[in-house]
Amino acid sequence: FFSSVYFMLRRDTSFLLHDHPDMHGIMKVLFGTIRVNSYTPDDVNFAANISCKETIQCTRTSANVLSADNRPIFLTPNKNNIHEVVAETDAAFFDCFGATLQKKKNCNFYRLKWKYKTMKIKSCQSLMCRK
């Protein structure tokens, strides 16, 4: 299945660190400026079906500041899938996601635990993404 949605964010607001399990995604800024920090688990066999008490090792793989002048950015099930979006200005962007499986999965939300250049990302709660 495919899902597409437009989001609007006020300056200095954000979407918490989250993922889209087993999904490919495209993000395009329509106006304003956003910052997207993306992380990739160090374990290539990472499955987003982790328990809330687990800690996973991740590396920040991109920190993009994007405006309408930039090309879309992409996420895959195994790269840049854990990400947060922060509005540098009032902004709007378009997201389109495609699932690799028939069954839709809930997003997982995370919190960062810094350790050197590698991130420890701890899963907190699995919640349904609101669209």
Write up what this structure looks like:
Strands 2-7-4-5-10-9 form a six-stranded antiparallel beta sheet, with no helix packed on it. Strands 1-8-3-6 form a four-stranded antiparallel beta sheet, with no helix packed on it. Helix content is 0%, strand content 62%. By secondary structure, the protein is mostly beta strands. The model is unreliable at 123-131 (pLDDT under 50).
Beta strand %: over 45%
Q: Biggest sheet: strands, sense, closure?
A: 6 strands, antiparallel
Number of helices: 0
State the secondary-structure class: mainly beta
Shape: globular
Short description:
With 131 residues, the chain is mostly beta strands.
List keywords for this structure.
single chain, 131 residues, six-stranded antiparallel β-sheet, 10 strands
Topology overview:
Layout: E1 2-9, E2 14-18, E3 23-31, E4 33-41, E5 55-67, E6 73-75, E7 82-87, E8 91-99, E9 107-115, E10 118-127
Antiparallel strand pairs: 1-8, 2-7, 3-6, 3-8, 4-5, 4-7, 5-10, 9-10
